[in-house]
Amino acid sequence: CLPGGIRPAVIVDLSQAGARLQVDSPPREGTTALLRWNSHESFCRIEWAAQNCCGVTFDRPMALAAIEEFNLGLAHETPRADPSRIPFGARRRPTAANLEAEQRGTLAES
User: Fold this and answer.
1) 73 sits in which H/E element
2) What is the rounded distance in angstroms from the CA atom of residue 25 to the CA atom of residue 28?
3) Whose CA is closest to 34, among 79, 4, 13, 65?
4) Are the C-beta atoms of residues 19 and 13 closer than 8 Å to each other?
5) Residue 5 region, left (φ>0) first, then alpha (ψ -120 to 50), else beta?
6) For 35-67, what is each residue's pLDDT tens digit?
């Protein structure tokens, strides 16, 4: 077992360089971890942490196939916003419907 344990997480955003995760009690900044979801996994570093989310950077760029799989899952399950109805400068807050559509994984501190 890893020192920090395994934490369930929701991948909110994913790119080749990193991800934004929703996780209860996120690890501290600077912690290294292993992010796993579906058949994918990547070593990463916690770059920032807030109350219930954190941002990670990957040790190696994420494969484009993994990002496409993530985006495809969101496209089939998440309704698209009408950009004309989003106030300039407003931040999007997760809703129950959005969270159900997002990819679930685990974050294990190393």
Assistant:
1) helix 64-77
2) 9
3) 4
4) yes
5) left
6) 988 888 899 999 999 989 999 999 999 999 888
